[in-house]
Amino acid sequence: MHEISIARALFGLVCQHAPNDATVRRVNVRVGPLRAIEPDALQWAWKAITKDTKFGRSTLQLESLPWRLRCPACGRRWESGNPMEACPCGHPNPRPAGDDELTLLSLEVDQSIGHEPPRPDG
Amino acid sequence: MKEIPVIENVLKLNDEVASLNRQTLREAGVFTVNLIGSPGCGKTALLEATLSRLKGRMRIAVLVGDLATARDAERLSRRSDQVVQINTGKGCHLDANQVRQALKRVELHRVDALVIENVGNLICPVGFDLGQDIKVGMFSVSEGDDKAAKHPHLIHESDLLILNKTDLLPYVPFNLQQFREDVATLNGAMPLIELSVLQGQIDPWIRWLSDVVRPGRGSAEQSR
């Protein structure tokens, strides 16, 4: 399951960018459809990778980009989660296009320390 | 709460190593293929046939990825002295660093083309750049005619698609027209080669590979 590899890579990137004195609350990631990432699987992988680490309380916020479809018959353009969605005009095979983006957009951190119960470092 | 902008590619590390691989391979004049297909579609058999057919005409090295065993490398080693097995353990795809480490065991100065046979998997390998020039996707007739539609990511990302085991068409309910339409819908610009490795019918693949591997790299005879 490649979501594990991705969660590991994301963990490394969060380590690089998270301030030492802050608690990471949210990790914001944008994903294009060409990455074939199953959102629930990535969420699970993130929980598994961060368990018992300093990011163990962070949540992963995913922005999933849709496929962009264009109908070769009527020219209609729209977005969809399904790359093979038929056009309302009746053409069964619109042309799909999509991004392969996988970007760590930002970290939301809480720099108030001293109120969290101690937990093991990762 | 404070928001810290990052805007970085999550797979930055893999992609940086992939770029290094690409540079190393291009400087050595090696054309590189990342072959992605399901377990059992015939990737290794295709490479065995390719190595035999192009012996003396094209010097081909192979990196082969599997979770376990060296069986594929053993098969291929009978036809090439430049085969490296990569065992990923539990990894469902190869990554750029595994390829970089394996490249240290390949004598690139006597290679025209490198084929990286990825772990048998139609999904996970697609998004991991290894430093290749092209991605080749592979299906087989025995898997069913809906597999292209079910794997749009591989179809979209591939430069060539191979459909193997056409010798089985008379015996299995495979709608070839539907498969072709699905492929054209998802990636109309990509060539589809239909072949049977078992019956030795691989000419279109050999022609295609010979065209994309730049002429003038030298044959096996010239290297000696």
Model description:
The complex is a heterodimer of chains A (122) and B (224). Chain A has 122 residues and is of the alpha+beta class. Chain A has a domain of 76 residues: hypothetical protein PF0899 fold, CATH 3.30.2320.50. Helix content of chain A is 23%, strand content 29%. In chain A, the strands form two sheets. Chain A has a three-stranded mixed beta sheet with strand order 2-1-6, with helices on one face. Chain A has a three-stranded antiparallel beta sheet with strand order 4-3-5, with no helix packed on it. In chain A, helix 1 crosses helix 2. Chain A starts with a helix and ends in a 12-residue tail after the last strand. The C terminus of chain A is likely disordered. Chain B has 224 residues and is an alpha/beta fold. Chain B has a single domain, classed as 3-Layer(aba) Sandwich (Rossmann fold). Helices cover 34% and strands 21% of the residues of chain B. Chain B is built from nine helices and eight strands. Chain B has a seven-stranded parallel beta sheet, with helices on both faces. In chain B, strand 3, helix 3 and strand 4 form a beta-alpha-beta unit. The longest helix of chain B is centred in the first third of the chain and has 16 residues. Classes of the chains: A alpha+beta (122), B alpha/beta (224). Chains A and B meet through helix 1 and strand 6 of A and strand 1, helix 1, helix 6 and helix 7 of B.
Question: Which key terms come to mind for this protein?
Answer:
heterodimer; A: alpha+beta; hypothetical protein PF0899 fold; three-stranded antiparallel β-sheet; 2 helices; 23% helix; disordered C terminus; B: 224 residues; alpha/beta; seven-stranded parallel β-sheet; 34% helix
